[in-house]
């Protein structure tokens, strides 16, 4: 009888382990992360309104997809679970509004955040009566990470630097210099936060600076087609950097 009970417990453990799967890796951010995951059709649909069962479109297209395919394709025995929670047009404030549902409730083991470009974009579109509040932006960012660490003290955090480039239609923008300066300030803050939280920092901005400077192409849109969104080639380089630095 004891052998039967022991055997049954062993089988139950195996089944529960299989159900539990491996590490859960969650990406959150704006359109660069979004990539039309869950059949969003280019809209900013909330996660609850996206197709969560269609594995053909579950990750969308972009660096997040490439990271997931790398780990899931090469290490099936580890049963990594990836989640895309990027939503086009989102700012840090938008992430805050859905943090409980799209981050805390998902119980990730690894959290990858890329945000900042839209914060500056919408600020530049405003009347700009006051300077961009970097102190408030940093405080909000830290608060979100604190909430996640409170829910999971062992959470591995990955923070990506926001970036822009003077390519494509962005070349027609009269405020590119200001935009570039403000986005770089957000990147500096992100790097400081990453250091304080012992998080993995991904210098996407410096990566693209180097690529655009050292790899000449016939079209300036080869890596970032509109000054904000990477092409497939750009997303591949982002994924390579993520994989190299994060090391799941």
From TrEMBL:
GO molecular-function terms, A-Z: phosphatidylcholine lysophospholipase activity
Segments traversing the membrane: none
Domain SGNH hydrolase-type esterase: 27-237
Entries under Gene3D superfamilies matching the protein: SGNH hydrolase
Protein's recorded name: Lysophospholipase L1
CDD domains named among the record's database cross-references: SGNH_hydrolase_like_2 (cd01834)
Organism encoding this protein: Bacteroides stercorirosoris
């Amino acid at each position: 009888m004891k052998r039967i009970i022991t055997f049954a417990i062993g089988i139950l453990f195996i089944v529960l382990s299989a159900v539990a799967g491996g590490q859960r890796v969650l990406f959150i951010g704006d359109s660069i992360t979004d990539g039309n995951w869950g059949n969003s059709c280019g809209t900013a649909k909330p996660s609850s309104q996206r197709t969560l069962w269609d594995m053909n479109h579950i990750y969308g297209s972009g660096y997040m997809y490439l990271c997931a395919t790398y780990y899931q394709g090469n290490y099936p025995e580890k049963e990594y679970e990836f989640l895309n929670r990027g939503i086009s047009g989102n700012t840090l404030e938008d992430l805050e509004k859905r943090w409980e549902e799209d981050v805390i409730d998902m119980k990730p083991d690894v959290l990858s955040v890329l945000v900042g470009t839209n914060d500056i974009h919408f600020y530049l579109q405003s009347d700009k009566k006051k300077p961009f509040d970097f102190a408030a932006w940093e405080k909000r960012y830290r608060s979100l990470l604190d909430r996640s660490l409170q829910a999971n003290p062992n959470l591995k955090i990955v923070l990506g630097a926001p970036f822009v480039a003077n390519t494509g239609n962005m070349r027609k923008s009269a405020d590119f210099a200001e935009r570039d300066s403000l986005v770089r300030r957000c990147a500096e803050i992100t790097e400081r936060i990453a250091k304080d939280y012992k998080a993995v920092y991904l210098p996407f901005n410096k990566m693209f600076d180097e690529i655009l400077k050292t790899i000449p192409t016939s079209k300036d849109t080869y890596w970032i087609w509109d000054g904000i969104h990477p092409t497939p080639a750009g997303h591949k380089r982002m994924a390579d950097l993520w994989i190299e630095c994060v090391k799941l």
